[in-house]
Amino acid sequence: MPLHLNTGVLRAATAAAAIALPLSLVAPATAAPDERQRTLQSITLPNAKRHLTAFQAISDANGGTRASGTPGYAASRDYVAGLLRKAGYNVTVQPFAFPFFRENSTGVMNQISPDARTYTPTPPDGSVVGDFATMTYSGSGDVTATVQAVDLVLPPSPAPGSTSGCEAADFAGFTSGNIALLQRGTCSFEIKAQNAQAAGAGGAIIFNEGQPGRTDTLQGTLGNPGLTIPVVGTSFAVGEDLASPAGTVVRLKTDTESETRTTWNVLAESRHGDPSKVVMAGAHLDSVLPGPGINDNGSGSAALLETAVHLGKLPVKNKLRFAWWGAEELGLLGSEHYVGNLSEADRAKVALYLNYDMVASPNFAYMIYDGDDSDATGAPAGPPGSDEIEKTFERYYDALKLPHIGTDFSGRSDYGPFIAVGIPSGGLFTGAEGIKTAREAELFGGTAGAAYDGCYHQACDTIANIDDRALKVNLGAIAHSAVTYAFSRDLPGPAVRPATSGAARHGDHDHGGLAR
Questions:
Q1: Do 19 and 13 touch, CB atoms closer than 8 A?
Q2: 307-362 pLDDT, tens per residue?
Q3: Were both Cys, which of 105, 189, 401, 476 would link to 19 (CB 3.0–4.6 Å)?
């Protein structure tokens, strides 16, 4: 079971720059108490901020991004791996292929005839939603051609059910070079676009179906690279306008990169500790393309790195394995690749997984993943042992007399693949695009009615977008949990877990958008 904290000592320690945790955190172990205390005292906020400054500099030198598939991510990988090697870890840089997509410039869609009309685009950073949006994994192209409707249902049926473009037969009589006008419905956008391309379409416009809740501009994904024609999504109103009269001519332009690229996870394993009892902690290292990602997730990456580099030479009882994940922003791809490639025997050795994603949001709340489902919201409880992990973090905040709330295992971060295979999981979060409630403002300060992070997934997620207080407190929590479980004789969860298999539970952190 997690060990109790010395409340007074911990409260005093976190008032200083050093995260000096009390020795009562850890069970008796081979490291001398003085050695452990000196190690913990070396974990400081200024050091964590230096890592964030490095991530910002990497982004500045590489086009303002650290996204997977870009030089900024490769430089972030090298920075983290280099420090871990110096700290004495066995470091593995694990490559994997992933579907890369970037919109290089804002799309264009203009009606040429019968009426001249310019449709408002959605820019590549998604900061505003226009009349149309380039679909993820769209090809590039600049085509001016007649719009040809494909098996549309107008007016729309009372319930969703359009099969527009779902079968090759829908394109019988389609004129090669025309722009296919398609309606959202029962099959994926990918299938519609593939069928349009196979029929010789020069581009494709997919509009929302038209029922209540299905009228706004579609921001969708085509699933994977492979399409070569421009494909955009529009609102129902735009699609209805283009459908009549027949013979409407449109200019459609997209400028994209859509291809399979290689990215990497960075894994660091302690030289000490029982290899049959692995304590894992992870944070995703990539940003989104529009920005440097200093809170999302430089904050979790930096705090984890600061913790890891100071624990590397401690003679821990249980094996420590730290992970910095690639391509999380495209749907947890790095952690899915890692977990999916573990043998059943190796999965069984992973005693628990701790996740740190956005731990310094400027309008923060201290949130702990709800391992026991005591909030009765959203996903069920995590695998057995997740409740104990939640209590470990609760004790940390309680010792500091700091408020805390639960947050759901929604599938939005890298705990998802671990939960899916039955590994006890937990971690910390301070909020993303969600809105802080009045009650949360009473508990944590900040601004009710505003986003926890107003720069979420934007270019303004810079070093200025960090709350130092939240970062220091959560750095202490990360060090606390690492030391607690590194030396614990009684790790959370059952001694033997049943064999499981499964895929991660995805929530809305899959940034490609709607698929159909």
A1: yes
A2: 999 999 899 999 999 999 999 999 999 999 999 999 999 999 999 999 999 999 99
A3: 476
pTM of the model: 0.86
Planar angle of CA 83, 86, 91, nearest 5 degrees: 75
Q: Is 328 a catalytic residue?
A: yes
Q: What is the pLDDT of residues 423-481, one digit of tens each?
A: 999 999 999 999 999 999 999 999 999 999 999 999 999 999 999 999 999 999 999 99
Residue 482 CB contacts under 8 Å (≥ 6 apart), including other chains: 279, 281, 307, 308, 311, 320, 354
Task: Note every long-range contact of 4-11, with CB atoms under 8 Å and residues 24 or more positions apart, other chains counting.
Answer: 4/395, 5/395, 5/396, 5/399, 5/480, 6/399, 7/398, 7/399, 10/396, 10/399, 10/400, 10/476, 11/399, 11/400, 11/401
Q: How far apart are CA 199 and CA 41, in angstroms?
A: 66
DSSP secondary structure letters along 295-310? IIIIIHHHHHHHHHHH
Tokens representing residue 20 in the block: 């000096």
- The whole-angstrom separation of Cα 212 and Cα 160 is 10
Backbone φ, ψ for residue 324 (5° rounding) = -120, 115
Which position among 103, 269, 306, 328 bears the catalytic label? Answer: 328
Mean pLDDT over residues 258-287, rounded?
97
Grouping H, G, I as helix, E, B as strand and the rest as coil, residue 94 is strand
8 A C-beta contact, residue 243 and residue 78: no
